[in-house]
Amino acid sequence: MNYQFQFQPYQRPFKIPLKTAHGMWKMREGIILNLTDKQGNIGWGEIAPLSWFGSETMEDALTFCQQLPSCISIETIFTIPDYLPACQFGFESAFTELNPNSFLDINKLHYSELLPAGETVLTTWKTLFQQGAKTFKWKIGVDDITEEINIFQKLIHSITTTLSNSQAQKIHLRLDANGGLTFEQAQKWLENCDLMNANQGLIEIEFLEQPLSIDQLDLMLELCDRYSTLLALDESVANLQQLNSCYQQGWLDIFVIKPAIVGSPKKLKNFCQNNEIDAVFSSVFETNIGQKSALKIASELLFYNRAVGFGINHWFTI
User: Fold this and answer.
1) pTM (two decimals)
2) Which of 294, 304, 309, 314 could staple 282 via S-S, CB 3.0–4.6 A?
3) How far is CA 26 from CA 19, 32, 205, in A?
4) Can 188 be counted among the known catalytic residues?
5) What is the gyration radius of the CA atoms in the chain, in angstroms?
6) 38-64 as b/e: b if 16+ CB within 10 A
7) Under 8 Å CB-to-CB from 27, ≥6 apart: which residues?
8) Computed from CA positions of residues 124, 282, 306, 294, in that sequence, does the dihedral angle turn out positive or negative?
């Protein structure tokens, strides 16, 4: 079967630039595409590259779309090369929307809300908590570690005080270093996390995400053995090849999977269903079109009851 193909690039500015160990991010760029079958049904998809995370560039994705004819086949959709993982996701998502295998209820998922780096976190978390959030992710590895740990202690105090007064349930906090820590800094953070979790209080440090760079898996495995707080890989498992490699090398803690850039959804499902890994599915700041497709994948593959990392819409005005 052949499908009519159309696409349109977009730009979506952040309310406030997102500050991570990778630098400042001011504008999300991507491509919205659609496939139309002979009956006039339309399937929507999104290509949301994250080149500094390991996917193709926006220019690569745009060039790929521009060289395609206006009518494409199923073979074209499912033979997109692996060096275009965001394109694989976008086209397969549009195809799946036209040819759904089952109904998946994404409303049953609970979300982790992304907090900003620095002192702003002390007010932002309260606003999101008042809106019902129970799981948060805070960016670390951005500023001086002594300053960040000081803010961390203030955050813990703020959460504890708020929960004690509201008699609310436990808060789950995730720390994301984006590979920006040294081994010694990672140890310092994990010592603090273990101490926090040992108190069995109103807060659980759920995991420390990607403390070291992607070429230091051996040291991250060593950290897993030394500390009780769970670790999660993110940049290290940006695509399917990396995901499989880290699994084969013995990673048993958490895998943070970004469906929009990891590659073919079909191949991802095969891997996860064969191995039943402990996964957290996460956003790359795609629009609602990409989010909907990614959340359907999460609904199907979430074998552990963990919040999905899609609490990001408060970072945009539109």
Assistant:
1) 0.95
2) 309
3) 9, 19, 29
4) no
5) 20
6) eeeeebbbbbbbbeeebbbebebbbeb
7) 11, 12, 13, 14
8) positive
pLDDT at 167 over 80: no
CA 48 – CA 282 distance, rounded (Å): 13
Q: Which residues contact 247 (CB under 8 A, 6 or more apart)?
A: 255, 275, 277
**Residue 9, CB-side half-sphere exposure with 13 Å CA sphere:** 14
Phi then psi dihedrals of residue 94, to 5 deg: -65, -40
Question: Which residue in the block uniquely carries the two structure tokens 């990672």?
Answer: 186
Cα–Cα distance for residue pair 84/76, rounded to 1 Å: 13
3-class SS string, 239-277:
CHHHHHHHHHCCCCCEEEECHHHHCCHHHHHHHHHHHCC
- Give 116's DSSP letter: P
Spatial separation of the C-alpha atoms in residues 173 and 113, rounded to whole Å: 10
Helix (H) or strand (E) holding 302: none
Identify the H or E element spanning 164.
helix 145-166
Among 19, 137, 139, 170, the active-site one is 139
Binning pLDDT at 50, 70 and 90, where does residue 276 land?
confident
Which amino acid, 92? Answer: E
In the chain, pLDDT over 90 holds for what percent of residues?
Answer: 90
**d(C-alpha 43, C-alpha 227), whole Å:** 46
Please pick, among 26, 170, 188, 258, the residue that the annotation labels catalytic.
258
Mean pLDDT over 256-262 rounds to 98
Task: Report the distance separating Cα 52 and Cα 187, nearest Å.
Answer: 26
Spatial strand order in the sheet of 203-209: 279-281, 254-257, 231-233, 203-209, 171-176, 135-139, 111-115, 308-311
